[in-house]
Structures are given as C-alpha cells and as structure tokens.
Amino acid sequence: MAATDAFRPVIAGTRIGHVHLKVADLDRALGFYQGVLGFELMQRYGDQAAFISAGGYHHHIGLNTWQSKGGKPPPEGATGLFHTAILYPTRAALADALHRVLEAGIQLDGASDHGVSEALYLHDPDENGVELYWDRPEAEWPRAADGTLAMFTRRLDVDALLRERKT
Q: pLDDT at position 3, please?
C-alpha cells in the first residue's frame, strides 16, 4: 500500500481466531497447554497434530509437528511469532492460570500492569512466547486529557493477583 492511499480501518467486530503452533513434541506441548493451562483436547491426529480449546469451541490452539518434529526453537534475533496471547474473562480466572503455572514449576518471564490489562509472560516447552492476560473494563482504561488511550507498563503485584483466585 502506498503512503498516499487512504487508510480504511478493518470492520468493527473483526477478531483474530485461533493460533497454530509448530512444536517439536506433541505430547510435551499438550502437557503444557492441556495439563498446565487446562485447555480441552478436541481432536488429535496421532503424534502429528492436536486441536485444543476453552469451553468446547472447535479449537483455539492448533499444535502440529508437520514441519517441526524434534526441531529446535528459532535462534535469538530471528523473525517469527513474539507470543500467543490468551485472554481470560476475569481477573480471578487469570489468578487461577497463574496458580496453575506456578504449581507446575514454570517460571514467569514477566508480569505487567498495562492499565488496560494485566499480563503474565512465560514460554511454552518449545520456547514460544505466551501471554496470559485479562482486560479491564473499557470504562477503566487510562486516558490522556484529550481522551486518547494512555497505556503504560508497570510491575504487576502477582501476590495480590493470586489472592483473587477462587478456590
């Protein structure tokens, strides 16, 4: 698109559907996404592919070994997916995800309050970046004096988040 072309935004309501990740070992990936995070297995094709979801949807995440069985993660400095972001419906649900991750002995790479959301950052067994987050209600989003969005990055108090977990 040339710089002189008029910008037309995509239609409201457009969403990003699912993510499909190349993994080295399907069982290991399922151990993380299904065993730790709690996604439900919807369909599996031997050791080649699996489709998992939250709430019975056909799939939110596809995992496959078609081009990556036994492979290694891309080296630092390579292009590719930075992270997959998994949106939880409530702060309590994010707290439960944090509890699951910590119980599995998985270390967080970071935890941030962005004003509009709270996010946890980690890596899956194939070194794919994973963001677990929840969005604050839009009415609570930080705004500048002119009404534009004023996101920020501050340290998230993970202990306070864990206290939100419903047992």
A: 59
| pTM for this entry | 0.92
Query: E strand or H helix at 120, and its extent?
Result: strand 117-123
- Domains of the chain, with CATH numbers? 19-68 (3.10.180.10), 83-167 (3.10.180.10)
**CA distances from residue 17 to 13, 52, 85, 86 in whole angstroms, order as listed:** 12, 13, 12, 11
Residue 165 · residue 92 · CB < 8 Å: yes
User: Mind listing the pLDDT tens digit for each residue in 81-97?
Assistant: 999 999 999 999 999 99
Spatial distance between the Cα atoms of 137 and 115, rounded to a whole number of angstroms: 10
Classify the C-alpha dihedral 70-76-78-81 as positive or negative.
Answer: positive
